[in-house]
Write a structure and sequence with these properties.
This protein is 50% helix and 15% strand. The chain has nine helices and eleven strands. The two termini are 45 Å apart.
Length: 495
Amino acid sequence: MTREPRSPRSGVPPSAGLGPLGRRLFAAFAVVALASVALLTTAALVGTDRGLSSAHQAERQRTADRVAAAAADAYRAAGGWASADLSAARSVATAAGAVLTVRDADDEMISDDAGSGSEDEHGMPGSGRGHHGQGAGSGPGVSAPVVVDGHTVGFVGLVFSAGSGSAGRSVAWGWVAAAAVGALALALAVSWFVTRRLTAPVVRVAATARALAAGDRGARARIDAPGELGDLAHAFDAMADDVSHTEQARHRLAADVAHELRTPLASLQAGLEELRDGYTEPTPDRLASLHDQALRLGRVIDDLGELAEAESARMSLHLAEVDLTVLAGAAVAERKAELRTAGLTVHTVPGPAPLPVRADADRLHQALGNLLSNTARHCRPGDTVTVTTSATPAEAVIEVADTGPGIPADELPHIFDRLWRGTRARSKGGSGIGLAVVKELVTAHGGTVTAESGPSGGTRMTLRLPRATPQGPPLVSGPGTKPRIASRANTPRGI
């Protein structure tokens, strides 16, 4: 059965009862079971009845044949019907519970144990004359010819009692009825089991969803169900984990943003109050310090605005055929000064040109710029950065590899999450938005971005985009042409 443990962190109880869906499903199963059992029972009764009737008729016919053989022996011994001793034939008929009628070849009555001395209007069937049918009695009748030396000299008719064979039919019908009741009980039990098996995970997930909506962020379904139901429960728990993680990240962001804003605001407030009250002179150094605090505030605001733009980029992309090799070179050229200021050595390994992709040049340039700025922020002076463009039959690839300190293995799966910051980023005051923006922009283009980092250091960011079809419009950027760049402050982005 489905395991439904109570979550230690959740107040969601195991599902009880079937619920509306379960009751409807069980009713449907029960109707199908009843219809199936009724159909099979009817077929069994009809088949049994016909089978027994056929068997009884065959047995009656064999009895008639034995009676006809005994009558033939009597005819042969007496030399005719006039003095034939039919006692042996009567004994066989009586033992079978039948009434014997004997007629000669001219359809004249020879013997009628039912006491009918005249010709029976029903006749004995099978004679071909229309009179060899049932004799006296109300039950089923059979007939057989009396053959002596290859000549038919008469006919015997047997009429059985009306209740003949009913005992066997009653026994057979009793077994069929018992089997039908057993099959119905088994079908209902199986229907109940299957209904519980199918609806218990759904009921559990619904209860967990209600608990989440009520504010219990630790509620999880945690059930093991077969097939798609198990996939549903696992997907729901994964979604709940993501919601909880996102909420925690937003709380951290709120705290981090408050901290980032508090310090420059306090400095600005104190400096402006000193200038207002005349405690200090508006010297260039003092004004420059206040200006730096204002820029720090602007960076935080820009980060938040950039994330909002990236999340809505799918709705605002202006796609055209772009040469990815040229675009990557332009992004490196723009960020080269920032990389060199950080003490990094920059190498580019251009791939095939042109390398067409369907993309928004501004947005894609922004994503590459964020990758390079992230590298400049977290690498050490003296490290090397290598930007490589290449192609596969279906994809265009850009790799940004560095020889920096790398990313811890436990942080690597989260670096593209929104509002998530690694240990180094928190120590350097990053907002946790830059790489999330990269993922949003690349995903909006139908591509993927992944990160790899070895235990000895070094990080490789790989960006993959679908290659453009040959029928696309002319390239937006070619050799010597710089793509249009969004008007934004080129500030480093943290992980």
